[in-house]
């Protein structure tokens, strides 16, 4: 892990340095993996119709045989990748995937809007994985990015697959029944509480943002009618005609500015809020799994009280896992804060822009 | 500009008060009375003002005054009163006549009406108008004594009835079309404006929810807490700002409404002219037919088929004496008719002259007022945007500090 030494300018053990180690999006100079998702294409077979997306990867990493890859993937493949990552790293925060279908709203499965929204979310998904210090080196991830369609299918069929996943679930259920919350460190209880409140608030914000979008849309619709009336009026006037036409054109510009504003919302704020709503679920899941692991640790500690050496080995393993979670959480928090900033910044710039435009337009 | 009352006297409608009283049918009712204050002003020397006189009037008395003026000066575009009932409301505004905001806007509208009449070179000299301002008691009787209600042509009430005028004055026809167009375009505009205001209100107010949630959220955040909290505050400010903005816009709407009603007044003048023209044509027609009758009786020839002709054929001719009597009556009528026609023609020409003078005056006033209203609307929008910029700049700062 060479990046550690480079970025580490503070004392090696302090928590802030740990956070620093996991700085995401360090800027293009430090990134060595670039992924884009684009070009949705529809495929029609006898059985079904589905969409594939083009995934282009550019990299300078040694472990990749080539420096550029281009493959086509469908939504199912992404689902597969996500579940493999969850399997391999149960206590790391795997980024959310866009949902299978949208419940509310009359969005068809293959409408352009839906496909575009999904494409953007898939793009984000892969990039978040790429930016994650651990996940980025995952083998399945590499295969996802590089394998041809038939290679991927055959790889999918290998591996532990169903049985091991079932085993995990069984253990999960068992430990949750046992109530693994006994020795939970304070930090994770705090996180749980935080997540509960956060999830509430972010869901509210998501609803509010959608509501604002709706109101703005209605406003826009009314404004569209408002401008032309002035033009109509100017037709029957002589003296006042110029002023009326002026007002009409200003109103039209306001309309366009409002459109921009709405676009800003739908392109930046709404998707991010949605992503974080999904993140809430993911995080709750991660915390649960952490609890499970802890539960395992505790039960092993109890059960293997005599076999000291074995116990040490196990607890060491499990302790490592706990640390992993801890780090992942910290990293994500740092990431969140910065993301929030960016998100808000984008949104506010859009708004400020609109207001400024309004001003200029109205200076008639 | 001619010397008009507005220059010699300060007029304000300064207060509004709720009253209860018994009406004509002895039923208890609640109404609003408005205080009219007047003060004589010396045009040359400043600070030399007469004492303030005041009296109370209610809306129905204003209506009576306006009706009187409309009938007495049919060739004048009489300034309109503010609306009787709240119209073009968007959801937050009340349509209740007793609502304090409505009363306040009506007070301003009534003051505006009085000022308009007082600045009109002809209307301001009317004695009834003067008495309306100065004489509290006995004014109603005074108005009724003028007998103006008799002059009021009931035919005008049927505003949409058409009179087939053979030689309409093109200018008046055009003007009538213009007034119709103006009415329809302004009312359309006001309706859409009300809907736009409604939507804008919605957008602003939902942002207030951000304020609440940000504040709750900030409680669980450490680094982001302060930024969120202050940003939330700005969202609240933003949401609250819309109330003032829209209130100001109501004044703009009222200015447009005045011209909506002015369009009606303009139309009324056109209608009166139409009616006059119609009467003239009818009178001329009547005269022509009487002359014809006279000629027929005198010469004994029946040129046109008439019932009289038929009956005389069937039942025998009239005696020469009877015929003479008839001719005499007709000749008298014809003379009367010719005099009437002359005076009607004169009336008509006078009407057109003075009406057109007032219409020109009105046009100038309208262009000036509309331009000003549009400018003030633009200024309002600019100020709204400036406020928006300020709020969002502040919010942006808060967010960037999170």
UniProtKB/TrEMBL annotation, chain A:
Gene Ontology cellular component list: early endosome; phagophore assembly site
GO biological process: autophagy of mitochondrion; endocytic recycling; piecemeal microautophagy of the nucleus; protein transport; reticulophagy
Matching SMART domains: PX (SM00312)
Coiled coil segments of this chain: 304-331
Keyword Transport annotated: yes
InterPro entries linked: AH/BAR_dom_sf (IPR027267), PX_dom (IPR001683), PX_dom_sf (IPR036871), PX_SNX7 (IPR042130)
Keywords for the protein's UniProt record, in alphabetical order: Coiled coil, Protein transport, Transport
Domain PX: from-to ranges: 31-152
Keyword Glycoprotein recorded: no
Pfam families xref list: PX
GO molecular function term, any single one: phosphatidylinositol binding
Family per record: Belongs to the sorting nexin family.
PANTHER family named among the record's database cross-references: SORTING NEXIN-4, SORTING NEXIN-7
Protein name per UniProt: SNX7 protein
Gene: Snx7
UniProtKB/TrEMBL annotation, chain B:
InterPro entries: AH/BAR_dom_sf, PX_dom, PX_dom_sf, PX_SNX4, SNX4, SNX4_BAR
Gene Ontology MF terms: phosphatidylinositol-3-phosphate binding
Keywords tagged on the record: Protein transport, Transport
Family of the protein in this entry: Belongs to the sorting nexin family.
Protein name as annotated: SNX4 protein
GO CC annotations on file: early endosome membrane; plasma membrane; SNARE complex
PROSITE patterns in the cross-refs: PX
Domain of life: Eukaryota
PX domain: residues covered: 12-140
GO biological process: positive regulation of autophagosome assembly; protein transport
């Amino acid at each position: 892990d060479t990046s550690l030494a480079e970025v580490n300018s503070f004392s090696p053990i302090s928590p802030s340095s740990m956070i620093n180690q996991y700085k995401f999006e360090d800027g293009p100079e430090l990134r060595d993996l670039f992924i884009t998702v684009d070009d949705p294409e529809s495929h029609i077979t006898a059985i079904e119709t589905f969409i594939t997306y083009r995934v282009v990867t550019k990299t300078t990493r040694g472990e990749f045989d080539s420096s550029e890859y281009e493959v086509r993937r469908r939504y199912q493949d992404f689902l597969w990748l996500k579940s493999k990552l969850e399997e391999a790293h149960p206590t790391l925060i795997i980024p959310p995937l866009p949902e299978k279908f949208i419940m509310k709203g009359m969005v068809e499965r293959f409408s352009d809007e839906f496909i575009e929204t999904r494409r953007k979310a898939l793009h984000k998904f892969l990039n978040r994985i790429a930016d994650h210090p651990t996940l980025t080196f995952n083998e399945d991830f590499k295969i996802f990015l590089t394998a041809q369609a038939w290679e991927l299918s055959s790889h999918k069929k290998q591996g532990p697959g169903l049985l091991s996943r079932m085993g995990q679930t069984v253990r999960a259920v068992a430990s949750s029944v046992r109530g693994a919350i006994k020795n939970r460190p304070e930090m994770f209880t705090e996180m749980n509480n935080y997540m509960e409140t956060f999830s509430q608030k972010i869901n509210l914000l998501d609803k509010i943002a959608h509501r604002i979008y709706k109101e703005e849309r209605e406003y826009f619709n009314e404004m569209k009618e408002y401008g032309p009336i002035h033009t109509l009026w100017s037709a029957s006037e002589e003296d006042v005609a110029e002023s009326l036409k002026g007002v009409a054109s200003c109103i039209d510009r306001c309309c366009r500015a409002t459109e921009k504003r709405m676009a800003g919302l739908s392109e930046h704020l709404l998707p991010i809020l949605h992503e974080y709503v999904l993140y809430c679920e993911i995080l709750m899941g991660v915390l649960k799994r952490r609890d499970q692991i802890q539960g395992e640790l505790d039960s092993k500690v109890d059960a293997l009280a005599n076999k000291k050496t074995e116990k040490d080995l196990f607890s060491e393993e499990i302790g490592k896992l706990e640390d992993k979670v801890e780090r992942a959480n910290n990293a994500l928090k740092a990431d969140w804060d910065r993301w929030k900033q960016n998100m808000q910044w984008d949104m506010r710039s859009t708004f400020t822009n609109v207001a400024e435009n309004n001003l200029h337009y109205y200076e008639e | 500009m001619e010397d008009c009352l507005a220059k010699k006297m300060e007029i304000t409608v300064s207060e509004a008060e709720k009253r209860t009283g018994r009406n004509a049918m002895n039923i208890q009712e609640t109404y609003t009375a408005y205080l009219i204050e007047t003060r004589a002003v010396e045009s040359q020397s400043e600070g030399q003002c007469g004492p303030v006189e005041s009296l109370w009037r209610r809306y129905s008395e204003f209506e009576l005054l306006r009706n009187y003026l409309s009938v007495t000066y049919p060739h004048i575009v009489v300034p309109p009163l503010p609306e009787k009932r709240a119209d073009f409301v968007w959801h937050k505004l009340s349509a209740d006549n007793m609502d304090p905001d409505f009363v306040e806007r009506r007070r301003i509208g009534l003051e505006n009406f009085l000022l308009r009449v007082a600045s009109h070179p002809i209307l301001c000299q009317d004695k009834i108008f003067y008495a309306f301002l100065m004489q509290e008691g006995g004014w109603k009787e005074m108005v009724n004594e003028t007998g103006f209600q008799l002059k009021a042509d009931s035919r005008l009430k049927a505003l949409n009835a058409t009179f087939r005028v053979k030689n309409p004055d093109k200018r008046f026809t055009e003007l009538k079309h213009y007034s119709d167009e103006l009415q329809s375009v302004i009312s359309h505009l006001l309706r859409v404006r009300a809907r736009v205001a409604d939507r804008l209100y919605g957008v602003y107010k939902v942002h207030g929810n951000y304020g609440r949630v940000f504040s709750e959220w900030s409680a669980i955040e450490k680094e982001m807490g302060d930024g969120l909290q202050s940003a939330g505050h700005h969202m609240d400010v933003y949401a609250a700002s819309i109330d003032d903005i829209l209130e100001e816009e109501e004044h703009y709407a009222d200015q447009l409404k005045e011209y909506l009603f002015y369009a009606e007044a303009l139309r009324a003048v056109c209608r009166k002219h139409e009616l006059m023209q119609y009467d003239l044509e009818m009178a001329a027609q009547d005269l022509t037919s009487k002359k014809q009758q006279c000629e027929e009786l005198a010469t004994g020839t029946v040129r046109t088929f008439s019932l009289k002709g038929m009956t005389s054929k069937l039942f025998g001719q009239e005696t020469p004496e009877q015929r003479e009597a008839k001719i005499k009556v007709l000749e008298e009528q014809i003379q009367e008719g010719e005099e009437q026609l002359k005076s009607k023609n004169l009336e008509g020409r006078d009407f057109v002259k003075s009406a057109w003078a007032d219409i020109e005056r009105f046009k100038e006033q309208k262009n000036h007022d509309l331009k000003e209203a549009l400018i003030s609307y633009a200024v309002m929008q600019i100020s709204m945007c400036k406020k928006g910029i300020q709020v969002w700049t502040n919010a942006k700062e808060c967010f960037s500090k999170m």
